[in-house]
Design a protein that fits this description.
- The protein is of the alpha/beta class and 417 residues long.
- It folds into three domains: 3-64 and 79-104; 120-201, SRP54, nucleotide-binding domain (Four Helix Bundle (Hemerythrin (Met), subunit A)), CATH 1.20.120; 214-406, Rossmann fold (3-Layer(aba) Sandwich), CATH 3.40.50.
- It has 15 helices and eight strands.
- The chain has helices at residues 3-52, 56-73, 85-96, 106-118, 120-134, 141-153, 158-174, 179-201, 226-239, 256-266, 281-294, 312-328, 346-359, 377-385, 406-414, and strands at 214-219, 244-249, 270-272, 299-304, 333-341, 363-367, 389-393, 401-403.
- The protein has an eight-stranded mixed beta sheet, with helices on both faces.
- A hairpin with a 7-residue loop joins strand 7 and strand 8.
- Helix 5 (120-134) packs antiparallel against helix 6 and helix 7 (158-174) crosses helix 8 (179-201).
- The structure holds guanosine-5'-diphosphate and magnesium ion (MG).
- The site of magnesium ion has 5 residues, from helix 9.
């Protein structure tokens, strides 16, 4: 990047920052006004209730409504941080994707900053060293060997690494490639790997199809973040105005239903469950589909028990759940999403391969990208298991999940500052 480019980007980011700051101030004032009005209305309502002595049931209804309002307020809005290097970088990534200054939001900046910070460990063991070794000198066959080692170490996987190194070698045979240009080329090649399964799937991003029941099953081994991710998805979905319902089909873990209910409450999404011991997960899904049909639900999110890919009975159970969905709602759109914990690196890749064999997956969700050095495993999953990555998670908060965007991911993974 030339100095003028970088000055322009800074200028762009500074303007975006000022605009966001102004918008944030306006929103705050608007919220305060709304709150005042609401309190006034509540006061009037209470007086009215007093006067009319409404019957008990009605009072209960109002009380629970107020509760819901209070609960939904507990999800804090992100605050605009300092205008710092993180902000500039995030704004530049958004600008590079064609976003105009007035189109960017605090949410997006917040997320990109988090993603970049999350991938810092992956980056440290990779780019910093790469840049050190490459410097400004043109690439040499030796620097390709170094790059190969670094890619493997970042858990990018052997197939993806071979692919990238081969392309770079070809390029090197044809022309002199400078350090900066090498990185640019590397980013492009890595992005291609992530985009291939997404292109093959025919859908750039995964969103529920309107007018149909969409059923998304979250599968994966214990502890990878299925339930947490489902909670975040419920929030994302209901915030995007899809009528959403949760099925608690993890009937193995005692606390699983309670954990889901907490998430459901946070985004006002109902949870269908069966509290009895050894309840049949397929029966929970059966009930949830009935409910979903009655309520005209757009998206039914199904939490499943963590299973070892080697345990056949649990895999059979997944098949049973799918059979019930096919039978009861044959025109529904079913997505089986494998949840993978990025910090497990190559072990996650192994899980993906073996689940893909027996569970007919349609996509992957990578979690825990905050603070692992193994973010590169996302590339291995794309290249070696051919699964489109649909969402990524970088934190335990309700907003720490976003639709996957290969450009943002690669930029965050290779950001050199
Ligand atoms: N740091 C971090 N922790 C996460 C993320 N997603 C889930 N977790 C944590 O991982 C643990 C297991 O999550 P859980 O959803 O219960 O996993 P499950 O067994 O697959 O349902 C919990 O402590 C979560 O808070 C993430 O993106 N980042
Ligand atoms: Mg769980």
């Amino acid at each position: 990047m030339t100095d003028t480019d970088s000055d322009n980007s800074r200028e762009w980011a500074a303007q975006a920052y000022a605009l966001l700051k102004k918008r944030q101030e306006e929103q705050k004032q608007e919220l305060e006004k709304q709150e005042e009005q609401k309190q006034e209305l509540e006061k009037q309502e209470e007086q009215k209730q007093e006067l009319e002595k409404q019957e008990e049931q009605k009072l209960i209804n109002i009380a629970s409504k107020k509760n819901i309002l209070r609960k939904s307020k507990t999800i804090s809005e992100p605050e605009l941080g300092e205008f710092d290097d993180n902000f500039t970088w995030s704004a530049m990534v958004l600008a590079a994707q064609g976003k105009k200054i007035n189109q960017i939001s605090i949410d997006e900046i917040d997320w990109l900053t988090k993603l970049r910070r999350g991938l810092e460990e992956t980056r440290k063991g990779f780019v910093t060293e790469l840049l050190d070794r490459l410097g400004d000198d043109p690439l040499t066959p030796e620097s390709l060997d170094d790059l190969e080692t670094l890619l493997i170490r970042a858990d990018v996987g052997i197939d993806s690494t071979d692919k990238v190194i081969d392309s770079l070698r070809k390029k090197l045979n044809e022309e002199v490639v400078g350090g900066e240009e090498g990185i640019k080329f590397l980013k492009k090649e890595l992005k291609l790997i992530l985009d291939k399964p997404i292109k093959n799937s025919g859908r750039d991003i995964l969103v529920p199809q309107k007018g149909k029941l969409n059923v998304w099953l979250l599968v994966g081994v214990n502890g990878v973040g299925k339930t947490t991710t489902l909670g975040k998805l419920a929030y994302l979905s209901s915030r995007s105005n899809y009528k959403t319902l949760i099925a608690a089909a993890d009937t193995f873990r005692a606390a699983a239903v309670e954990q889901l209910k907490v998430w459901g409450d946070r985004s006002n999404v109902d949870v269908i469950s069966n509290q009895s011991k050894n309840a049949d997960p397929a029966a929970v899904v059966f009930d949830a589909i009935n409910s979903a049909k009655k309520r005209n639900v757009d998206l039914l999110l199904v939490d499943t028990a963590g299973r070892l890919q080697t345990k056949n009975n649990l895999m059979d159970e997944l098949a049973k759940i799918k059979k019930i969905i096919d039978k009861k709602v044959p025109d529904s759109i079913v997505e089986s999403l494998l949840v993978l914990d990025a910090s497990q690196g190559q072990n996650g890749l192994k899980q993906a391969k073996s689940f893909a064999k027996s569970a007919d997956l349609s996509g992957a969700i990578i979690t825990k990208l905050d603070g692992t050095s193994r973010g590169g495993v996302s590339l291995a999953v794309s290249e070696e298991v051919n699964l489109p990555i649909r969402f990524i998670g970088a934190g335990e908060g309700i907003k720490d999940l976003r639709p996957f965007n290969s450009y943002e991911f690669i930029e965050a993974m290779l950001a050199d500052k």
